Amino acid sequence: MELKTNAALIIIDQQKGILHPRLGRRNNPQAEERMLALLGHWRRSGRPIVHVQHLSRSEDSVFWPQQSGVEFQERFEPLPGEQLIQKQVPDAFCSTALETCLRGAGIEQLIIVGVATHNSVESTARTAGNLGFDTWVVEDACFTFDKADFFGNARSAEEVHGMSLGNLQGEYATVVSTAQILN
Question: Max CA-CA distance within the chain?
């Protein structure tokens, strides 16, 4: 595993709304600290950073553009020169310029962090892998929430997170830890 000098850090949906209590219990309480450690490392090394912002089409979403919650958390606010991609569905490649921007910059390796593991992170990582990018998902810099499965069985955020990472590992992406990247 080698981190390329132009590997892009893709930070998904680090907006104020993701902290809303109505989303329920989550896993990885240190995920944001790890995202910030990676973001700092990327900024210091001059590698490309892409901030993904969700602008929901659904009025009951925490990311509905007509309400507070859609804006970035201050600690994840993009700096000048960092790429901003706005999406309306979980997949950051769908109906956005993300692939064009990455290919135009000659970027082949993507390091994905953010939320929610089972939703925007997984769908973006699947597409990235399908498009041929060398895709890494940082398991401890992502989180998700408790969720019922299709049959109505309650699943913990840890189970949902683990299953999502299991779906990705080896087929669409390589699952890594923050420490593996920073060391």
Answer: 46
Residue matched to tokens 């390091």: 111
Domain boundaries, the chain: 8-182
> Which residue in this structure is represented by tokens 């990582």?
125
In the structure encoding, which two tokens stand for residue 28, read together?
A: 């990885």
Query: What is the residue-level pLDDT of the chain in tens, covering all 183 positions?
Result: 799 999 999 999 999 999 999 999 999 999 999 999 999 999 999 999 999 999 998 888 899 888 889 999 999 999 999 999 999 999 999 999 999 999 999 999 999 999 999 999 999 999 999 999 999 999 999 999 999 999 999 999 999 999 999 999 999 999 999 999 998
The secondary structure element, H or E, covering residue 111 is strand 109-115
Q: How far apart are CA 65 and CA 59, in angstroms?
A: 8
CATH code assigned to 8-182: 3.40.50.850
